[in-house]
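Checklist before submission:
- one chain only
- standard amino acids only
- sequence pasted in full

Submission:
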Amino acid sequence: MRFLKKYFLCLLLLYCSHSYAQSKNDSVFSAEFISTTQLADAKAGEIIHLGRGIGTGKPVLFIFLSPECPLCQQYSLVLNKLYGEYGKKVNFYGIIPGKTFDANTINGFSEKYKIAFPLYIDRVLKLSRYLQATATPEVILLDNRSELLYKGAIDDWFADLGKQRSRTTKNFLHDALDQQLGGEPVAVKRTKAIGCYINDY
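Returned file contents:
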């Protein structure tokens, strides 16, 4: 009897520790879960839900960023250009995971690098864990049914940390957006995100 109690307690702890993760199918997500997850609006300083922007007729792009990550800073120009090109057809959400950065730091980053899309703070990593984001910068593109279209690096500019190519040869995110909006299947669904690991705090 004591063994059974310990067994079920272990199962319960295991479940709770992974309750935010999408474990059954990492390609299909819940629009309701995403839309009702609490985030903090870095600019307004309010707790918000993404709400109506999820599960509508538009694809959704989550961009995981860290204000002090050099790669996030370097990719700001690329991301702003993509937002200018696709922002009316795709809902863009910049996500700052964890409690490390306060609103002033995030807004300073936004102003310095002229981030054109909205930034939200995922303080308890609920959304980050659910979408299984692991690094910054990392992008996760979902269709209007919250099914995964693309997850990983923005492009192949960086082969690894500190290993920068002289030019980009593969534009993973741009191609995924083009293919989705053009009614074509996304050819490359996953790549490895190169950047700063998302810490568990």
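Reviewer check: The helical segments are 2-17, 31-36, 70-74, 76-86, 103-112, 126-130, 172-181.
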